[in-house]
UniProtKB/TrEMBL annotation:
One of its GO terms (cellular component) is cell outer membrane. GO terms for molecular function: calcium ion binding. Residues 362-478 form the OmpA-like domain. InterPro entries: Bact_OuterMem_StrucFunc, OMP_bac, OmpA-like, OMPA-like_CS, OmpA-like_sf, TSP_type-3_rpt. Residues 1-20 form the signal peptide. It holds the Pfam family OmpA. It comes from the Bacteria. The keyword Membrane applies. This is OmpA-OmpF porin, OOP family. It is found in: Cell outer membrane. Keywords: Cell outer membrane, Membrane, Signal. Its main location: membrane.
């Protein structure tokens, strides 16, 4: 029965090895999906490349406390705790970044009962015991921090939670002491069926550097023998638990691990991110050519021809993700050649707006006018100097003028007609308020029927500076 329980417990530590991931594996060309944790390069880890250290030697010391027995270390007959000592040394082999096997030797002494066996018995009813033990076991080591680590977490980490479980053989000598003195109660030798034991627990590791780890462990040891505590057999006077089948104890230890090998990193601290270590694979093979663009990059803009929408981008031009030269102000002049990158302007003026600083100029029978924002009839402050010049010019002339409003081709005909009329009337009212005689002006709305750039039908065929020029009010002599 003891052997069966031991085998079952040890078997529970093994399955994680089957599912451990190897981020150094070569992709099979499969597209990542929800089952591949975001990486198409996931497969059973073998460390065939031998780029990680996978051996270590560990040692530590601690305190065992007999917990489940007739004579205990915790809250004994006098309400005190009796502390023993323990030590361990192990040879550790990592199979994957998430699973390893340790061959461990333990030695220690538990102290239990009503008093410390180094002292005299306080009375005739007080009983104490101590148990010296040696054990050899094989432990499965599960690195939960790597097993459960998100594969999209690129951050380095120096703490790791490990779980341990395994079976082995234990030898011990149990001594009992009372008012009559000390005597050997039980002696069990190792490598016998009755000497099998189990232990399981957890440890928290801290990576000091590439060579040294420190670890705190708490293990629970199932001895498989109810005479381990020195209390005698099931029918002795000291035995208070006739149903007891095993004396068990906690073992708290603090240890250090020395990682062996010539490589920079140990596999148990290996980050399971495919993206990082796939690049290391490429860098390690310096003779491997990396084919970035299958069809090349004809215009050298950094966008492969496979998805480049503009294969003749001028040298030096900034491009978007589709390889199209940037035109920040959408005026039809790319930023490379645009002298006014953020302000739209005509091509003939290198992408800069044409400034009107002097008086409104009369060309034949027309006076050049002002422009408006999209869907707006508001006179912009920048147009004030132009209109003031128009006031002076009209007042100095003998003729009368039509104030003509126009729009671009966005919107319906009816909407654009009304918008153009509002623009014309706003300009007319401004001129009248600033001294122009009412009889010299007549507001006329022409909607989208009087485009300065007729080719902008629809508006999407033209850059923004041309559409803005179509949204205007100008003056025409009658």
């Amino acid at each position: 029965m003891k052997l069966s329980l031991a085998i079952v417990a040890f078997a529970l530590a093994i399955p994680s090895a089957i599912y451990a991931q190897d981020s150094t594996a070569v992709s099979k060309g499969e597209y990542p999906n929800t089952f591949s944790s975001g990486s198409a390069n996931v497969s059973p880890f073998t460390n065939k490349s031998k780029r990680f250290n996978d051996w270590a030697i560990s040692a530590g010391v601690g305190v065992p406390l007999l917990q489940s027995a007739d004579l205990t270390s915790i809250k004994n007959g006098n309400g005190k705790n009796l502390f023993g000592y323990s030590a361990y040394v192990s040879i550790d082999k990592a199979i994957t970044h998430a699973f390893g096997i340790n061959l461990q030797y333990d030695r220690g002494e538990t102290r239990q009962g009503w008093f410390n066996t180094k002292n005299a018995a306080p009375d005739a009813y007080a009983v104490a015991a101590r148990t010296q033990y040696d054990a050899i076991s094989i432990l499965g080591d599960i690195n939960f921090s790597n097993l459960l680590r998100r594969v999209d977490n690129h951050s380095p980490y120096r703490w790791a939670l490990h779980g341990y479980a395994g079976i082995g053989t234990i030898a011990y000598r149990a001594y009992q002491k009372d008012i009559n003195g000390q005597r050997l109660m039980t002696e069990i030798k190792p490598f016998q069926l009755g000497s099998l034991f189990m232990q399981a627990g957890a440890g928290l590791k801290f990576k000091v550097n590439r060579r040294i780890d420190i670890e705190g462990r708490l293990m629970y040891v199932v001895t498989g023998d109810e005479e381990f505590d020195g209390g005698g057999d099931a029918y002795s006077a000291i035995n208070r638990r006739s149903e007891q089948v095993s004396d068990n104890f906690f073992n708290a230890t603090l240890g250090v691990s020395l990682k062996l090998g010539k490589h920079e990193s140990h596999v148990m601290w290996h980050d399971p991110l495919q993206e990082i270590y796939y690049k290391l694979d490429v860098l390690a093979n310096k003779n491997q050519d990396i084919e970035v663009c299958k069809k090349g990059d004809a215009d050298n803009d950094g966008v492969c021809d496979d998805w480049d929408r503009q294969l003749d981008t001028p040298a030096g031009a900034r491009v978007d993700g589709a390889g199209v030269a940037l035109d920040t102000d959408l005026d039809g002049v790319i930023d490379l050649y645009d002298k006014c990158v953020t302000v739209p302007g005509p091509v003939e003026n290198n992408g800069c707006p044409v400034a009107t600083t002097g008086p409104v100029v009369e060309t034949e029978t027309k006076l050049e006018g002002i422009e408006f924002d999209l869907n707006s009839d508001r006179i912009l402050p920048s147009n004030t100097p132009i209109l003031n010049n128009a006031v002076n010019y009209i007042n100095s002339s003998n003729g009368s003028y039509n104030v003509i409003g126009a729009t671009d081709t966005r919107g319906t005909d009816a909407y654009n007609q009304k918008l153009s009329e509002r623009r014309a009337n706003n300009v007319k009212n401004y001129l009248i308020k600033n001294g122009v005689q009412t009889g010299k002006l007549q507001a006329v709305g022409k909607g989208e029927k009087d485009l300065k750039y007729p080719e902008c039908e629809p508006a999407t065929k033209c850059p923004e500076w041309k559409n803005r020029a179509n949204r205007r009010v100008y003056f025409e002599a009658k």
